[in-house]
Amino acid sequence: MTTKRFLAFGLAACMVGGTALGYVFARRDYMNKQMLLSQARLYDSLRLNMSGITTAEYGSTFDVHTLVAEHTGDLKIDGQIDASAIGSYPVKLILSGKESKFGLTNSKTFTASVNVVDTKPAEITLAASKVDIKAGSSYDLFSNITSVIDPIDGSLTASTENGKGTYTVAVDGDISKAGTYTATVT
After folding, report:
1. FRET pair for 48, CA 20 to 30 Å: which of 12, 58, 149, 180?
2. How many domains does the chain have?
3. Looking at the structure, do residues 10 and 56 belong to the same domain, yes or no?
4. Residue 112: domain span
């Protein structure tokens, strides 16, 4: 009878132990699923609405935070806009959040691009609005320009090639031949 009791006790102990072990594994799987669901909910809760701003005026002061209309979570902006140089500037917008039940963190990264453009024209002062020259003679187009002042760069100097701080003059034809021509300052 002792052997039967020993076997019955052993069998009962195995059943209790197996049940307890099953509970431990089931509980672990359940908690892992809950953590994954919680992390997915956190990720889905991170939202960013852009303001629609995609350009900055050359020479202006630009705050990268103006790119964002509203957001959830903590916002970190990685990138700078150099409004003193024309071009395109990429910016990373990183949202992060922390979930309280499990202490999990998650983040989402968005990208934006800002184009720095110069839309403010320079003020051009001419010696005369119309110049008459004799056909066949040479004429220095720059001689009729008294000043070119850019609102950001200030006074510009004459040049045969466009560049920062300079201006050029081009004419729409051969001024050594008789005719009416238009000169363009850029």
Report:
1. 58
2. 3
3. no
4. 46-119
Say whether pLDDT at 108 is over 90.
Answer: yes
CA distance 175 to 139: 8
| Domain co-membership, 27 together with 3 | yes
Alpha-carbon distance 160 to 20, whole Å?
Answer: 88
Last-in-domain residue among 119, 139, 174: 119
Strand ranges for 72-142 from DSSP E: 74-78, 87-98, 105-117, 123-126
Q: How many CB atoms lie within 10 A of CB 6?
A: 10
Same domain, 55 and 110: yes
Average pLDDT for the chain: 88
CA distance 121 to 182: 18
Which of helix, strand or coil describes residue 50?
A: strand
Pairing, β 145-150 against β 123-126: antiparallel
How far is it, in rounded angstroms, from Cα 183 to Cα 41?
Answer: 64
pLDDT at 1 over 60: no
- pLDDT tens by residue, 44-100: 999 999 999 999 999 999 999 999 999 999 999 999 999 999 999 999 999 999 988
